[in-house]
Specification:
By secondary structure, the protein is mainly α. The chain is built from 2 helices and no strands.
Length: 51
Amino acid sequence: MANNKVITIGREFGSGGREIGERVAKLLDIPCFDRQLVEMASEKWAWIRFT
């Protein structure tokens, strides 16, 4: 079985959460996906819709 890592960061406007996420991903050498990429994938495969 694959050794997958998933880290989610809850944030508010102006909190710097995106920058923190990008830095953590770089330190852990894992990809960082933002909401826009997740939304595009969900639309392509008709999973869930964000509100």
